[in-house]
Amino acid sequence: MTKLAIASLLVVTAYIASASSSRPLGSLHAHTDNIEKVINDGSNVTTTANKKLRVRHLIRHKAGKTKSKMKGKSSKSSKSSKSSKSSKATVDYWKMADLRESANPYAIGHRGFGATDDSGVLDGIPTENTIDSVLAAFDVGARVVEIDVVLTADGNAFVDHDDFLADFSCINQMTTDDLKQVLPESTTLFELLKIVQPYARRRNIDADPSGLVIIDVKTPSPLCDPNDNTEEELMKAVVYDIQKARMTEQVEIQSYSPVLLVLAHSLAPEIPRALLLNAIQFLTPEQTEDATGLSVTLIEKGDNPDIQWAEIGQLFRLPGYASFEQFVFTAATTVVATTVSIDKLFLGQAEQTVTGSGAGIVAGLQSQGFTVHGWTAQSTDEWLFLQQLGVDGIFTDLVAEGIDLQAD
User: Fold this and answer.
1) SS3 helix, strand, coil % of the chain, rounded to 5?
2) Element of type H or E holding 317
3) Mean pLDDT of the chain
4) Residues 6+ positions from 70 with CB-CB distance below 8 Å
5) Residue 239: DSSP 8-state
6) Which of 12, 356, 389, 397 shows the smallest number of beta carbons within 10 Å?
7) Whose CA is closest to 281, among 253, 323, 313, 315?
8) How far apart (Å, rounded) are the C-alpha atoms in residues 278 and 287?
9) Listed residue (144, 160, 338, 339) closest to 250, CA to CA
10) Cα distance between residue 121 and residue 140, in whole Å
């Protein structure tokens, strides 16, 4: 379990039970044990067994044993080329709106076919955030995938989880061509969307949506954006690629940053938006430093003075919320989001503290018109936990298994 994940456990009890900082949060080990009992999973990393399961599902699905359901009758060949031209069907695309109307919970392919480690192709699993990973997810029947996007030196939106490499080289200091030498499997957002587009074009064929993409736009890190002035260029690059690919109705822009999502709204209000939440965003600076071992620097950012931003070490820049209500208000009014995405640790600790409160949070958000996504299921138990809370969609690293478990 990462330090940031452990830190997420510390805050939820205080939020649900009391707004007072005088209430003891208890020991870190106690919180960790409790959350494991709630979600029946002792680890926040993908185990070797789960990786083998992912490969087994991928092979089985590729063999065609669990193909996507087909609808309608097959089109018959035209008797002549003349009649074929005159009766050519209009192409109909799946849209994000169709996903919200489909049976839930639905599986969301995390970083394509699931997160992988630095070794890339592991046990036959495609490298995360690549075209191969995304296509693997759609080929086994995923309705929607999530990818991460950062900015290059030549102003392109590039698909990668962080804005720095493993050696802490900054992606925004490298051109797209440079990056493709270092990361030969990686690609730009536009290139990926164009390859995904044919899956969205199958609305007249498939029973369920396909070819839909959640684009997680990463808040630039203090390391790579020390002056905090590249967000506008990043969002312009993202919106440009979406519009150039003609995929405005097939994507959703997601981010932790209300500033980025406000930019997205101003540039392309027709593209739906999702605001992310991690429980660490409710911690005090002192709690965050104690839990992560990283220094915290409070900064001014954005047009809302009530949202306190912080730089956590050199790798994270996040908004903080005084209350869950402030987060919901930000999603509804500042960002005008259609979706909120909440981490499983926040919901799990809520359930452990007051039984039913996690489900109550989800139901309350849905009653306000939000689609609610939970992240990230890395085992069957975690999937079932999020499912019982009533979320609409579940980010998962076990994509093929999630497709088997998702609602028909």
Assistant:
1) 40, 15, 40
2) strand 316-320
3) 83
4) 205, 206, 207
5) H
6) 356
7) 323
8) 14
9) 144
10) 18
**Cβ proximity of 279 and 35 under 8 Å:** no
Residue ranges in the chain whose pLDDT is less than 70: 1-90, 117-123
Gap between the Cα atoms of 323 and 279, Å rounded: 11
67-76: long-range contacts at Cβ-Cβ below 8 A with a sequence spacing of 24 or more? 67/141, 68/141, 68/206, 68/207, 68/208, 68/210, 69/206, 69/207, 69/208, 70/205, 70/206, 70/207, 71/205, 71/206, 71/207, 72/204, 72/205
Pairing outcome for strands 157-159 and 144-151: antiparallel
Residue type, 216: D
- End-to-end distance of the chain based on CA atoms, in angstroms? 33
Cis amide linkage into residue 105, ω under 30° from 0: yes
What are 283-331's pLDDT values in tens digits?
Answer: 999 999 998 999 999 999 988 888 999 999 999 999 999 999 999 999 9
d(CA 153, CA 174): 5
Instruction: Record the tokens describing residue 407, joined without a space.
Output: 């609602």
Integer Cα distance of 54 and 137 in angstroms? 11
Spell out where 126-272 has E strands.
Answer: 144-151, 157-159, 212-217, 251-255
- Does the N-terminal peptide bond of residue 376 adopt cis geometry, omega within 30 degrees of 0? yes
